[in-house]
Amino acid sequence: MPSIYESLRWNERRITAHAATQHIPLKFGEAGTAGTRATLIAGTHGDEGPWSALAIKMFCERPISQLTGRLRVILTANALAAEVERRNSWIDSPNSIDLDSVFPGNAEGSHTDRLAAALAPLIADSDVVIDLHGGGTWCINAFVKRFEGSEQLAADLGAPFISNAPNKRGGLTTYARSLGIKVANVEVGGRSGREMYWTERNVRGLERALATLGVVKPDRAPAPADPAVDVGKTEAMRAKVGGIFVPTLREDAVGTIVPAGTELGKILDLHTLAELQVFTAPYERTAIMLMRPQICTVEGSALVYVLARPA
Fold this sequence. Notes:
20% of the residues lie in helices and 32% in strands. The chain is α/β, with parallel strands linked by helices. Strands 6-7-9-16-14 form a five-stranded mixed β-barrel. A four-stranded antiparallel β-sheet has the order 13-12-10-15, with no helix packed on it.
């Protein structure tokens, strides 16, 4: 029996691009003919890597007989950004435009505006939208954003941490919510030695979420998600000065809780390697939601951690 992936009907929209190619394709696959329609989208930000797309593909490798609703997959939403591993498309330079801030787009606007305009109808006729992001090429994430009216969806996705999401002006999920669509924003995974652990965890989360929604019916009921730790307001920790970043806690620390005063990492002078800044856990119980896991050079103001206090 073919898999869902093998049964996908591939479609494309042509988006104006640069002089050498004139147009690029926005490709999406669809399977199923009736029932709840779920749209899974990855690659809105090009620097967040292909892990979310891989998780979607791995999820779709189950038999087509398990599909009880309708499924749409958009594996690379922002191809020009993805090919250069940048957050936003280079074609809009010198004005970098975030695809996740211009919905529902403008068919006569910039490349990114036109891309959003092509994606908007695919979002608008969905019953549920799961927008998969991640840490990407320079960090690892371990949380899901929860929206009012879609609480069970966020819980089923099984991230270590869960936070209430604000309405982001022009955001993909904000646009979907304005149409009454259930949404979740996944911020899980990134480049590290544990990249397949997080990818496979996302696969299990997708299975749970879509089984609850009636889009798929696995042969065995998915195991319940471990309860996510609810966190309050998040805090971004940034480098006060440029230099060499050396993490004290490594990639296995993301998604965990550490006590106050725990050394997280430090900034060293590029020329002398003198210690310039030390990052420590600020709360009695500090949730590590995002971190840089590798030694690297950073600019002053570079994002190094996102932390939160468990609610």
